[in-house]
UniProtKB/TrEMBL annotation:
Residue ranges of the TM segments: 6-29, 41-62, 74-92, 113-139, 145-164, 184-208
Entry protein name: LysE family transporter
Compartments, record wording: Cell membrane
Membrane topology (UniProt): Multi-pass membrane protein
Source taxonomy: Bacteria, Pseudomonadati, Pseudomonadota, Alphaproteobacteria, Rhodospirillales
Source domain of life: Bacteria
Keyword field: Cell membrane, Membrane, Transmembrane, Transmembrane helix
């Protein structure tokens, strides 16, 4: 299979895995509404980078890394669940600004990127999705490093394309969102994020009982 075919398949995989709206999507939407499209896109790029890491593990067939990460699954789920609870509570208590926030500086964008990168990596089950998809397409663990690199690049580009479209689209609606509406968005988003955190922690119960 040529490099362009690997790249195209990576684009499709990255876009499709990023598209379902979960806690990261919710964070991206909320940050776009609160701080602008740049903050939302930076958050999405963090998730896209984490997707590329997991795509690399699956694409290059790094079984040892996969086994190590799955061995730490409980600890990573605990950390991710606690972070989601904290983010949910902070969002729930956040007060919308009286006027639109200025574009965040480099430090703010870096923080938005780093937080979603770490949060996405804290869900090692994501690698199972990549292994399943890559395995179904006959792409997992291939020996062609050039093809695997093109595949991972495609995963990142496809995921980033989704986040760019989402943050741009939500950013266009930002000016129409009133302060009262933003207050309710914060409340609902906070409760949903906390719900994701509770679900993540609940998945640890079978592990603790065993």
């Amino acid at each position: 299979m040529d490099v362009l075919a690997f790249l195209a398949k990576g684009l499709l995989v990255g876009f499709s895995i990023a598209a379902p709206v979960g806690p990261i999507g919710l964070l991206c939407i909320r940050r776009t509404l609160a701080d602008g499209a740049a903050a939302g896109f930076a958050s999405g790029l963090g998730a896209a980078s984490a997707d590329a890491v997991y795509g690399a593990i699956a694409g290059f067939g790094l079984a040892a890394v996969t086994d190590w990460m799955m061995g730490w699954e409980a600890a990573l789920r605990l950390a991710g669940g606690l972070v989601l609870l904290w983010l949910g509570l902070a969002t729930l208590r956040a007060r919308p600004a009286e006027r639109a926030a200025e574009a965040p500086g480099a430090a703010g964008l870096a923080g938005a990127y780093a937080s979603t990168f770490a949060l996405t990596l804290a869900n090692p089950a994501t690698i199972v999705s990549f292994l399943a998809v890559f395995g179904g397409l006959g792409l997992a663990g291939g020996s062609d490093w050039t093809g695997a690199a093109a595949l991972v690049s495609g995963v990142f580009a496809g995921s980033a394309l989704w986040w760019l479209g989402l943050s741009t689209g939500i950013g266009l609606l930002r000016a129409k969102v009133t302060i009262r509406a933003m207050l309710w968005i914060n409340r609902v988003s906070g409760m949903i994020l906390m719900g994701f955190g509770v679900v993540a922690l609940a998945t640890l119960l079978p592990v603790l009982r065993s």
